[in-house]
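Cross-posting from the modeling subforum.

Setting up a comparison between two proteins and wanted a second pair of eyes on the formatting. Protein 1 (sequence, then structure tokens):
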Amino acid sequence: MPSGSPFTPFLVSISLTTDGSVSFGYLGLGTSASTYGVGVGQSDPEIISVDSGTANLNVRSTAFVGVGSTWSLGAASGPDQVLWQFSKDGSSWSDFAVVGTEYPFDTNVPAGNTRNVYLRIYMPSSTNSYVSHPAEITIVASSP
């Protein structure tokens, strides 16, 4: 930046207004569950609040890591592989296809607004590991 140029930082602040935890409970192989709808683990969206600035929101996920086993992400469930999805409205779903990759969630969200994050999982078709396999979702905010 040239010397003497005015610089105004773009400040964006977001927060989570919910508990930050989703539990689907025990799910059998080849089954699915979501946080949208009615039932165990459902009607439990995570809620992101844009506290300051206008924000573009992206999401990313880790793999599902259990003791001695990792379930990968894929375009369909399979052996030790889950189909893991996100949605802002519960009707249009996007895949987490690659671990650590940021995917667009919403754009130009004004300060003072919230967005629901719904999650859906399709369990592996088979596995040799029947322990808990948690994953973490990260919401990334940036200025448009």
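Protein 2 (same layout):
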Amino acid sequence: MLAARLVDRCAMRYQMRITRVQSTERSVSATDSEAAVDKVRAELDKPYGFLGSWTTEGHEVEILSVESRVDGVGVSPVDGGPLLLSVQAASERLGISRATLYDLVRSGEIEHLRIGRRVLISRPALATFIESNSRTSFSD
């Protein structure tokens, strides 16, 4: 089935914030505590400063947003592109032929609209089609 061929091209893009707390110990020679802290801060400001081995004390991962993707290209109009795609453009995004996409349109497997004689497919319809036909195991 066509949906099985699309699984390899379907992915989600997650925008995430990762916070990691690490600690290390270091001995520093200085005239006073302020000078010692300044030395350590100067070392931390270097892109590849060396302060010894670090231990991760904790971490937190937060998902900020999720975007449907097709062949590495977003299906939401974040690129300023049109909301509606021609059959040619939609088939290129899916990585299938125009004839196969027309078959999906005729069978009702993918939502579309007609303006005059043109068949147009929205980016959200592409995402819905991919999400509803994606499988997690190879045997489906």
